[in-house]
Amino acid sequence: MTDDWRRRNRANWDDRVRVHADSDFYDLPGFRDGACTLRGFELDELGDVSGKRLVHLQCHMGQDTLSWARRGAAHVTGLDFSEAAIRTARELAEDLALDGQSRFVTADVYDATEALRGERFDVVYTGLGALCWLPDLPRWARVVAGLLADGGVLYLAEFHPFTEVLGDDGKSVEVDYFDEQGTTWDEPHTYTDGPPLAHTVSVQWQHPLGAVVTALARAGLRIEFLHEHATTLFQRYPVLERTGPAQNPVFRFPAGHPRLPLMYSIRATKW
Fold first, then answer.
1. pLDDT single digits (tens) 136-156
2. Left, alpha or beta for 31 (phi > 0: left; psi -120 to 50: alpha)?
3. In CA terms, which of 4, 122, 175, 206 is 20 to 30 Å from 152?
């Protein structure tokens, strides 16, 4: 596979940063004022991170990374291939006086072991919307295993791949669930409010849930749990209803509608 997909995706994400940093969706002023960007189920499922060293792969602008620092992690590392995103993350850390408790590194996720010079961590965290940018899950899983200290845990929260099978109406089946070929998208806007992008092309991959679990198991990790969630973070389909607190809403199918998995989470341990 050539690196053309990586070049396109990096240009696309570098471009997104200027839009995301000014968006209501990411709300950097609110984050500076103390907002936590982690979801309640993530806090519950990963548990207490006090005193632990955590690395966040594909960290974007670092808000989730720094939220773990605020939750007591001894030291957090954020890694992302976008230099623009890493610059923003470093500025946030400085503004919040968390720069002594954090660091941000520009590197492709597949190069994380080398970029972090073989350092091992208590926690590897990967947040929502990350895996669709990676073509090779077994390679990613091996990177995760290489970053974990013995007894360390991976915590992964992701959008459920089943959501990609349905059409925009949330009812019709339109996509092959098992199609793992890369799809090229040309979209003028990112998923937040804001102006159009200059670099509009990206390449993404759909990974069945079994492929994720198998990749982690074959990398030597023991799966502690796989949880599927009936809520998501945005109105993926028109039929979904908004619920929960105004600052951290979730979306779900209305009462009486058959529930479908919209997100999932995995915790796995290295022994």
1. 999 999 999 999 999 999 999
2. alpha
3. 206
Amino acid identity, residue 199?
A: H
- Sign of the dihedral through C-alpha 201, 232, 217, 60: positive
- What is the amino acid identity at position 135? P
User: Exposed, middle or buried, 184 (CB in 10 Å: 0-12/13-18/19+)?
Assistant: exposed
For residue 2, pLDDT beyond 70: no
What pLDDT does 3 receive? Answer: 72
Cβ-based neighbour number of residue 257 at 10 Å? 13
Q: For the CA atoms of the chain, what is the radius of gyration?
A: 18
- Secondary structure of the chain in the HEC alphabet? CCCHHHHHHHHHHHHHHHHHHCCCCCCHHHHHCCCCCCCHHHHHHHCCCECCEEEEECCCCCHHHHHHHHCCECEEEEEECCHHHHHHHHHHHHHCCCCCCEEEEECCHHHHHHHCCCCCEEEEEECCCCHHHCCCHHHHHHHHHHHEEEEEEEEEEEECHHHHCECCCCCCECCCCCCCCCEEEECCCCCCCCCCCCCCEEEECCCCHHHHHHHHHHCCEEEEEEEEECEECCCCCCCCEEECCCCCCEEECCCCCCCCCCEEEEEEEEC
